[in-house]
């Protein structure tokens, strides 16, 4: 387990070489010598089936040296898919996941999406796949860099680390990796290594005006992909968010196995189920008002039992991120309304990045906790929550 890493990083669109809006995220998980990357991008303007080339990059002097990872395809509801590659000698190169500075994705119409976790800005115009840069006398193999900026969270078994802190290379988190070059078809022209000889066709920037034509088959051969399973967003979005066994952590697998062993119970009314929770769970009072009353503390191991009792509480990466950092979850009852309305909450802070991730997993509302800091520049602590039945 010493090589186990997991982290999530945000992907931003780059237009005219400038960083633009957040378009989604990539979840990176490495263990036993294999690195898996799961992508979710809210990009709806590309024709369905458009190809996007994914590269990891290593910073060499002022250049971004590209390492081919694989190909994604746009779907009806955005871009989603998984790519798998060795953690060491990625793309048949001498570089490992620890040495990557981030990922860059090149799509049709000069679309570029990228993420970095070495706290250094990305300049897409400096991207190259020319191996000659590796032979320059001043070149030395890049050292492992601290993982920080774009990464939203990283967690190792039993020990969580906030996204604003650098991630140790030996710890679990590390999912934003390659950023790549876009080629939608064999006629799309980009700079890419030759699959058979490793020679580079072009050192120009990967866009329609530079490089040479290449095919999907060439990229797959050059990158040494173990598995490249690009799927449509419609096929994977539900799995990526609420499937309790989609992640590969021991905690998630344990939850699934426990849930399978719990026999279903007889149906009961929401009020009866809630009263049962009140009688068996520790009470907390995190808020200054009574908008959300009768709050109880929930543990990760309680989720399978809650689901068997009819509560629609799924397990996902955002939920695990909050639990690893604050060691509890929350359920409560809204005081307003004619009927009982219950909420499921994940502890966290209110900032733009966390808001984006919370929204991706259905937690669209935030309520500050009691005595939450109001100091300028300090993100308030509270709970991201959603209705639950």
Automatic annotation (TrEMBL):
Region of interest (Disordered), ranges: 137-216, 230-251
InterPro entries, per the entry: DUF6128
Pfam families: DUF6128 (PF19623)
DUF6128 domain ranges (all copies): 293-388
Polar residues bias: start-end ranges: 152-167, 200-216
Name of protein: DUF6128 domain-containing protein
Compositionally biased residues, Low complexity: 168-197
